[in-house]
Design brief:
36% helix; Rossmann fold; four-stranded parallel beta sheet; alpha/beta
Length: 317
């Protein structure tokens, strides 16, 4: 069993399926009127976010609280980080406070790995997104969503065709999804303009295309990526209209999917650019369901990472 979750590459097929199966069990358990489970009572989970986030931060917070953990949410803004405190000193502080797990989002690729592999802390570390590197729990929740809709929830993604479209260059979601979906047996194709595909993408375990219409025909799912303007310092495409014409998902393109094909998006969406409102709110879209599934999957990750820790000492008595 893994000790940290830093990359989708940390997971072999058995471990990934175990997390997804656990998420399904937890989803059923939290469907009761009393949603909380006592599983992680006495544990402390810290959300350490150096970047703005809504879905991921709240999802991890909800997941930990539903497992009865104590949760501390730490935002870089308004903290000592804004005064120049380093990641090391912050980690040492959290260790001194008795944190059991740190959920870290950081603008620098490799920050989560550095934290986990250092001697700064003995905490379990979960990567909630590091620069343009990876976002493994997003890949897990996407795989969970795919399992639910394909093969009647049987969980077999072997041979299923998944297309990932857009700003692959800056997307940690794309990297993690390619790795995890390949591990689970899916056939993945990434599509985008040449300027938004990373150097070396031809060595990724997926196919590469520049023709969206061609690869969408008969695909089981399409994942639209947000164009990350905040990470761009150059003109990667002529304009938003041209990008939308070539790589935006409208109803005509969505109808090219298999009859039961679905549309995913990690959010937040640039409506009208990478996806039209009609498709985002349409019957093929599972965008809101992804948010719900994110809580269950992150509960499963915390359960498997923290639930295996030694039992807390009871008071002498």
């Amino acid at each position: 069993m893994i000790h940290h979750l830093l990359s989708a590459a940390d997971l072999d097929a058995d471990e990934a399926v175990a997390i997804l199966d656990t998420a399904g069990e937890l989803a059923r358990a939290t469907g009761r009127s009393v949603k909380k489970l006592p599983t992680l009572r006495g544990r402390t989970v810290v959300n350490l976010f150096y970047e703005d986030s809504t879905r991921t931060r709240i999802s991890f917070e909800a997941a930990a609280k539903r497992l009865s953990a104590d949760v501390i949410t730490f935002s870089a803004k308004g903290s000592s980080v804004s005064k120049g405190e380093s990641l090391k000193d912050t980690a040492l502080t959290l260790e001194a406070m008795g944190a059991d797990a740190v959920i870290v989002r950081h603008p620098a690729s490799g920050a989560a790995h550095r934290l986990a592999m250092s001697d700064w802390t003995k905490c379990v570390v979960v990567n909630a997104g590091d620069g343009t590197h990876e976002h493994p729990t997003q890949a897990l929740l996407d795989a969970y969503t795919l399992r639910h809709h394909l093969n009647d929830g049987s969980g077999d993604l072997d041979g299923r065709r998944v297309v990932i479209v857009g700003d692959v260059l800056h997307s940690r979601v794309a990297r993690s999804n390619v790795l995890l979906l390949k591990t689970l047996g899916a056939d993945v194709t990434v599509v985008g303009p040449p300027t938004l595909l990373p150097v070396g993408v031809e060595h990724w375990p997926c196919a590469v295309s520049y023709d969206l219409d061609d690869v969408l025909v008969g695909a089981d799912a399409v994942m639209m990526l947000r164009v990350q303007n905040e990470r761009m310092n150059a003109a990667y495409f002529p304009n938003a209209r041209e990008y939308s014409r070539r790589y935006g998902l409208d109803r005509r393109r969505a109808d090219l999917l298999a009859a039961d094909g679905i549309v995913l998006h990690p959010g937040p969406m640039n409506r009208g650019m990478e996806i039209t409102a009609e498709v985002a709110d349409g019957p093929r879209s599972v965008v809101i369901e992804q948010v719900t599934n994110g809580v269950h999957v992150r509960m499963a990750v915390l359960y498997r990472l923290l639930g295996a820790l030694p039992e807390l000492e009871t008071e002498a008595g």
